[in-house]
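Sat 14:20. Reprocessing the chain from the morning session after the first attempt stalled halfway. Input below, unchanged.
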Amino acid sequence: MTNDIAIEFKNVFEKYDIEILLDGKSSRESFEALRDISFAVRKGESVAIIGPNGAGKSTILRLIAGLLRPEKGEVRVHGRVGSLLDLGAGFHPELTGRDNLLLNASLYNFSREELDSKYNQILEFADIGKFINAPVRCYSQGMYVRLAFSLAIHVDPDILLIDDCLSVGDDNFRAKSLDKALELKAKNKTIVFVTHDFTLARLMCKRGIYVRESRMIVDTDIDTAVSRYLEPLEADRDHFKYLSAKISEEEKKEQKCVLFCGPFLKFIISPAKVQIFHRDCELTSHNGVRAHFTMGGQDISSDSAVWRVKKISDEEVVCFLRWTQPQALFQAWYFKSLGDGTVELEIMMRPRAFLPTENAMMEFCLKTPCEILDGKRWGNKAKVFSCDSGAGLRIETLQEDQICGISTEGKEFFRPYFLRVPEGPSGREIKTRSVYFKGRFSSGSKTVAIEDPVLASHKLEAGRTKVDFREGSCQLSWDGKLLTTGLGIYTSLYSKGTWYDSAQARWKVKESSPDRLKVEGFWPWIPVAQVWEILLKDEKTVFLSAKMKVWKEMPIHMQETVMMLSAEYEKWSAGKEVKEFPEGFTSDDFFRFCLWANEADGASGLSSHSDHLPTVTFKPAAMQGYRVIVENSAHIYDVRARLFHCLCVNKNEETYFAPGEYEYFKGMIYIKEGSV
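Finished this time. Tokens:
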């Protein structure tokens, strides 16, 4: 290594051994993270490393930081390294912020004297005030990361490693972080920057290294590296064969293809319009089949794209869609007739600008009435629409990460749709290519082989008590008799004029056992998730807690946890006095039969009583701003129920929740055999 070289990689290979758990069996597999990587970075140079997720970018930084050793090859580093990787990973939760600074400074070869000299600067930059003397377990996630970031950039590094973390904290802190990074760049510090933000990459660096699938694709100037990354990839063409189709000048003029699917069904595919016919009678209206999504805050639909239509064969048609705004967005729609009255549609999407796709919807505009097949059984998790067209048209999704619904325009048009539900912040797993939609159409006597949706469900049992969780709803039963009705136990939040129930979200089981369950649910349309933990302590005691995750600032006006009890309960109590439920049930969501309300002080519990059912008590923990409410209602899906609420109404309708984690509910449910 010459004197002006700060970092050097020579023929570096790296691999990980990963434990795979499948069907209760464990096996180990090797994953090659880097393959034959060679490059050098001069002192004072700034280099951006770009590439898709899983390409090996972070592995390169870990090798430079000394956190990993290469499987083969050489890694040489000259100078003190400051690494903005896994911020705060070395913090001990029981130590104060100050003690953690002392402990972690040594990891940077930063002496006590050096730390003392910069302590005030670190503290001022982190802006956590008196919390520096509190255990870090008391910190919010933002405070935790800010302190770690502040230490890392004040250790006076010769080499600074940045792993896509100039977006930590709020807007002010992000601006400070970027200014500090630019200040270090101006001091001729060596910077290696991993990012998915090409604007930042161009601001910070003149040189770019593009890696993909563990290999270096190009090492050049940043603009060329970004351009290469955004080019159509051969990997796309290998995976999606139809992308190789060429469109002749004559085909560009014609721009209409007919696809026959069995004896009666046909598709007429033209720019921004996909029509479906049965016995020459059109079933669709308007644009027919349409993709609609949001990108970078902008609503985008397939009818605003420039289309090119190509008939590959009598059974195959491909459409290439490009948008001018946002630039470099691309989709390919591939129709394939299976010759038996079934047509498959696959849509590949490649966002050449690195922007997340939100609210990805596939919509079908029909003239004929339609319904969700097995809608009562599966709800919005169903996978098939059945259209009353005389043709028996069915539209099916082959994906699991979607919900379904039907909107209408008067009595004339029906718009069934499938909507993708992201598992976490949009953009967390942005890919250079992805399947936007995969589904099929069928008609006539053809029977579609429908796979049941994959639902999150689990039963907890203790003695005579069962808690049955199913996709955001819990039903409580005793000795085989249901005590709840409708949605059972569920949560709901109100934002911008719309209620979002937990049963509308898609859920995943995180942990489960006969008496314990942990699940996570993700909502469409809103940047929110919830984590529930349910513990059936014994046949008389159920513990429930719910936490809410918000990953983009949003207004929430009301939030509640509800228990819908059977209308067979005739009486209720909130203390010693037992009262009868009124005979009437309101179906008005605004003018309800509210029978009693009190602050959720941890002492107030609501009990329901019946001569032939066990007494059920709903007892929320002390929660500031929440109220416990009793109602008699039939407004939730027209189900007559006795409602016990734990409700928080934010007095300011424009109350915005910043990104973070919030306690949503905590409480107990008690079951006692016998009447009052």
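The chain has three domains: 5-230, 235-442, 457-672.
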